[in-house]
Amino acid sequence: MPIDTIDPNPVELHPHSPHWADMAVEESARLKAALGVLLVTVHHIGSTSIPEILAKPIIDLIPIVRSIEALDDKEDAVRALGYKWFGEFGLPGRRYCYRVDPVSKKRLFQLHCYQEDNGAVTRHLAFRDYLRAHPRLAKEYEAE
């Protein structure tokens, strides 16, 4: 399939919402239903996963899959969930997708899909966990 083009998304910062975690869980369930046993787990990352900081109201998720090639074969299933598919999009081993709200046309979710043995997953989770454990540094990150 052809790779989609990126739609501009203006930066908006919002106070943290506990609803974002619920949205991440719900979207993870949709992904599991579409990808089945290929999907190992889904992690909520990005600014919406860090309590007490302003964040772009876009839920970043890392779906971990058993095989990135098998995920490529499921591109149509991901698109059927409403996602635009961008392939690696500049990061080898990653598959990037996003889904917009059909009413507002604003981005709701971004997927950064990786195979389970990709070291980028550890880096993403370590960064998130470090900011969660160090609220003062998270506030500094918010200011950047």
Describe this structure in words.
- The chain is α+β, with helices and mostly antiparallel strands and 144 residues long.
- The chain is built from five helices and five strands, in the order αββααβββαα.
- It has a five-stranded mixed beta sheet with strand order 1-2-5-4-3, with helices on both faces.
- A hairpin with an 8-residue loop joins strand 3 (83-85) and strand 4 (94-100).
- The model has no long low-confidence stretch (mean pLDDT 93).
In short:
This protein is of the alpha+beta class and 144 residues long. The chain contains 5 helices and 5 strands; from the N terminus they run αββααβββαα.
Which descriptors apply to this entry?
Beta Polymerase, domain 2; 5 helices; 144 residues; globular; 23% strand; five-stranded mixed beta sheet; alpha+beta; single chain
Can you list the strand order of the major beta sheet? 1-2-5-4-3
CATH T-level fold name: Beta Polymerase, domain 2
The outline comes out as: globular
Run of helices and strands: HEEHHEEEHH
CATH class: Alpha Beta
The largest pleated sheet is described as: 5 strands, mixed
User: Which homologous superfamily in CATH is the superfamily?
Assistant: Beta Polymerase, domain 2
Radius of gyration: 15 Å
Q: Could you name the ranges where pLDDT drops below 50 across 5 or more consecutive residues?
A: none
Mean pLDDT across every amino acid position: 93
Give the count of structural domains. Answer: 1
Task: Write the CATH architecture name.
Answer: 2-Layer Sandwich
How many distinct helices? 5
Number of strands: 5
| Amount of helix | 25-40%
Broad structural category: alpha+beta
Distance between the termini: 37 Å
- % residues in beta strands: 15-25%
